[in-house]
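Think of the structure tokens as a kind of shorthand, similar to the way a musician reads notation: each symbol stands for something richer, in this case the local conformation of the backbone. In the example below we present two proteins back to back. Begin with the first one, reading the sequence and then the tokens, and try to describe in your own words what changes along the chain.
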Amino acid sequence: MAGCVYHPGTFSIKPGQTVKLSEVIKKAGGTINGNYFAGERSASLRRVKVMRYEKGSVVEFTLDVWKGTGGSFIIKSGDRIYVPELA
């Protein structure tokens, strides 16, 4: 987990455990939501990236956690998650 979250880092997923993207973001302390107009960092939940290694290549998913169903996206062991800043 990296990007605009309070506690970036590595989080464990136990074998057989189902973990949603929204749960991993919560484990990372949630997103940073500063005052964008005052120049403070603020997360963009409309473009969360999940990179997954499958069959010899990297597959990238761009998910809308804010208004879409991206929060219910199932995270697998080894996935890389990036929450970008508002642009």
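Once you have a description of the first chain, move to the second and do the same.
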Amino acid sequence: MQPPSFGEDRDKRVGMVEYAFVLAFVVVVIIAALMFLVPRVGNVFRTLDGALPAATPVNLAPAATDSSRICSHNGSNGSALLGEPGCNALSGKGH
């Protein structure tokens, strides 16, 4: 196998330089676009944050002494209030 001639080696170097210039141009365009868009996107989020009401924490755990909850066991009408005999507050089932 013969070594590449000077012309082929030069063509490869020129191609690599062109590739480097294109890559550098793409990087510069991306950086410029980010510098232009980041403040505007930040303003959009600040506007949305100001427009939305503040979130309030929600307690999803049921109260242990909540007598308004219904316990389904075989009472006279098929249900009984928590705290009545035969109602298990944790499982919702009668004894």
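Compare your description with these statements about the second chain. The chain has a mean pLDDT of 74.
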